[in-house]
Give the backbone structure.
Amino acid sequence: MFRTISNFCKCEDGAVTIDWVVLTAFVAFMAGVVALFIAGPVRDIDTKNGAAMLTVADQVETMEVTVSFGE
């Protein structure tokens, strides 16, 4: 039994795969953390932009457009 565990610990066939999986999981975790911190401010900016666009749309509806062709 000890020999089997010793051989398993010395074998490095899957080490690169495990490293890649761990690094990928860490990057995905950090992306989730960053998304949680950014979500609130982005939502606030989106709300402010939407309100500004509605204000501009209301102002444009009341404007009168005139066109002159150099006359």
In short: The first helix runs from residue 2 to 10. The helical segments are 2-10, 15-61. The mean pLDDT is 84.
